[in-house]
Design goal:
Length: 289
Amino acid sequence: MRRLTFLVREAVSSLRRNLLVVTAAVVSVFISLALVFGALVLSELVRENTARWQEGDHIIVFLNDVPDQTELSLQEEVQGWSEVASITYCDKACAYQEFKEMFADQPSLLNVDPSVLPASLRIKLHNIDTYKDVTYRLIGNPAIRRVVTASEQFDQLSAVTKALNWLALGLAIVLGVASIVLIANTIRMAIYARRDEISVMRLVGASNWFIRVPFLLEGMVQGLTGAFLAVVAVWIGQSYVTNHISPTFLIRLTVDRGFLVSWSLAILVFGALAGVVGSATGVRRFLKV
């Protein structure tokens, strides 16, 4: 117990003596992990907004004038496909009602025989990326007159979503590694400043681990402090955005609280581990073990 108390006291003492260097390391870790957490939040916002934009009918299948049994069989077949989340049927009366709503400002077009308007199936997919596969399977069916999709918009949405997700992942990896390197360099500077003291400790028989532990504790404190500040900054930023964006804004800018809590804990753990790893790297080089 006394040895542990001594090691902790040494770590605290070193932090005080190297306050300027420690502050620089904490700020660097804070900036890095704040950007990492921010990138993760951005990725989650993209995912949530993409899910919202995906709501609605993704494919509209206009039908030929075929027997009701044929329409029912087609509907049951499509509903059984794994890509399809739901399917609804719009008969000629439904089509005429939609036609009147679409051209309500053009009365001259409303004098149309409802029987000439085709019935349709409205398909909603689990994932819009599968729209091409579903479309290809529908084309060529004799009961189908035409298949309509917002193909260009789907492709653009998928491309933007993937690009932003990869960007967030890349930032998280690069900045995470940068945090470890920053802490390692800081610990090297602290070890160099105390090289005479370390030499004396080794001469009196102190083990390498006895020398190493205070530096590991220093690194953990630095990483944890920087991570804590990053978490606080992201929470404050998220709260500010939530409270200052109009509720009528089309894009959702709030993420689930459970997501923030879980990733906050992950960032704190990562910060502590990054500090330990960075310290271990610095100590290994200077103690040559």
